[in-house]
Amino acid sequence: MMNNAVEVSGLVVVRGRREVLHGLDFIVPAGEVTGLLGPSGCGKSTLIRAVVGVQARVSGSVRVLGEPAGSRSLRDRIGYVTQAPSVYDDLSVTENVAFFARVLGVDRAEVERCIAAVDLGDHADQVVARLSGGQRSRANLAVALLGSPDLLVLDEPTVGLDPVLREVLWGTFHRLADAGAAVLVSSHVMDEAERCDRLMLMRDGVIIADGSPTAIKEKAGVDDIEQAFLAIVRGEAA
Ligand SMILES: Nc1ncnc2c1ncn2[C@@H]1O[C@H](COP(=O)(O)OP(=O)(O)OP(=O)(O)O)[C@@H](O)[C@H]1O
């Protein structure tokens, strides 16, 4: 097993007329939950899209599980959850997950396991249109868990979820990491930082800090990540 699921150097992305990622270097290790934190618009989704291989106008080197990002062979080794739901409104949770299992060629037995992993067992037969927002996000996540991907990439998976559910989902992410997967989770909510094994703090298309939450706080000489973020930004401006 490779230690780094993702290895990136010199990542530059241009969108419209603007360069939105300005030459990033980072890794995403296997067996850990890596958080990508930064304010709205800083480039988190763009970074994630580059890793998954769906972003246009990318330069630099982006290697995922030993292959160039976007390689065909990576398709069933990466689970990717976007902010927009991929599940169908008029199908039940089970029908949705079973549909994607067929598409991916994943064993039917996986369907129930993935639904249970996101704690949707009680709603398995409900059509997605009648689920709450949080339940719908979890149905989306269940699809991404099919086939036990080596890399799970989640773009703001906990937005709009209640604290109990967030707790459940973070538990799921850590279980997957403990089983050896690399988990990359973005969030604009700084208070999710402490739940990550490793963090990348991002601002204006640049990674301004990278390390364990403890190491980042120690280096900045403060005791919460939000303060660390501000201290680093102030330090850069000075
Ligand atoms: N098609 C586009 N043309 C030009 N600029 C774009 C385009 N799409 C996105 N951008 C810009 O790229 C930057 C990064 O966007 P991105 O969606 O990656 O940010 P984000 O950190 O994921 O934000 P959020 O947390 O709000 O989802 C933003 O400033 C955005 O305005």
TrEMBL record:
Gene3D superfamilies: P-loop containing nucleotide triphosphate hydrolases. Keywords: ATP-binding, Nucleotide-binding. GO terms for molecular function: ATP binding. This is ABC transporter ATP-binding protein. Residues 6-229 form the ABC transporter domain. PANTHER family: ABC TRANSPORTER G FAMILY MEMBER 20 ISOFORM X1, ATP-BINDING CASSETTE, SUB-FAMILY H, MEMBER 1. It comes from the Bacteria. Pfam families: ABC_tran (PF00005).
